[in-house]
Specification:
two-stranded antiparallel sheet; 3-stranded parallel sheet; 242 residues
């Protein structure tokens, strides 16, 4: 599952430049039975299979540094974990090494959670077949924040969520398409007016689509003024009370 992901676009370039190293470890290589099975029936009964503790412990321990060296975060991709977001991606991007465990089946033996992993991460409140896709999401989001990975480092700072707001609208050529025009301010060459327009658009888009994000932000006086104007205009145009 990882081969195409690791050899495409930004992730591929980051690896070729030596800014990212990904070591794939097959947990089955650490199975202690002739069938290389890493799962078994759950004690107490119930549907499905559970990943066994021993092969996971052995696989992770093979990656840990010598005693006395700093232990990297050992992360279990799990629907029970803290929800992944941009802030967490930034935190993880400052780590030198990360170990990601991809769960499968009905889950993993609880002793993995209790005695091996340092944190659990979820990418959302839904069920997936395994932890591979969530691990790719984490790798992608973290890689974008590594120094030198993006050609324009400002781009990462202006992405949705990076500045706490949804991103402002973007346009490119042609200027006119089927009667739909690019906003005139973006063609004005006035950088301050463009900055103000983009900030206003980001605030309005966030207010309409993700108001929960605004509650977490420390807004500047200019932001509050713009937001007040947005809310006032919306009330006047719709006649509704917000």
């Amino acid at each position: 599952m990882f081969s195409s992901f690791l050899n495409t676009s930004i992730i591929k370039r980051a690896r070729e430049q030596g800014r990212l190293h990904v070591n794939l470890v097959d947990i089955r290589d650490y199975a202690r039975n002739k069938h290389r099975s890493v799962d078994d029936y759950p004690f107490g009964g119930g549907p499905g299979m559970v990943m066994m503790a021993e092969p996971i412990f052995l696989a992770v321990e093979s990656l840990l540094p010598q005693e006395g060296a700093e232990r990297p975060p050992v992360i279990l991709m799990s629907p029970q974990g803290e929800v992944f977001n941009q802030e967490l991606a930034a935190e993880l991007s400052r780590e030198k090494h990360l170990i990601l465990i991809c769960g499968h089946y009905e889950g993993v033996d609880e002793r993995v959670r209790q005695f091996l992993v340092s944190r659990e991460i979820s990418i959302g409140d839904y069920v997936l077949t395994g932890g591979e896709l969530p691990a790719m999401v984490v790798i992608d989001a973290v890689t974008r924040l590594l120094p030198g990975v993006l050609g324009d480092p400002v781009g990462a700072l202006e992405d949705s969520f990076a500045m706490g707001l949804l991103e402002y609208p973007q346009y490119t050529r042609p200027r006119s398409f089927r009667g739909m025009e690019v906003p005139e301010v973006l063609l004005s060459g006035n950088h301050e007016k463009i900055r103000q327009w983009r900030r206003r658009q980001a605030l309005e888009r966030t207010w309409r689509r993700r108001p929960d994000l605004l509650a977490k932000l420390s807004l500047s006086p200019e932001d509050r003024r713009l937001l007040d104007e947005i809310i006032k205009n919306s009330r006047e145009n719709s006649g509704k009370t917000y």
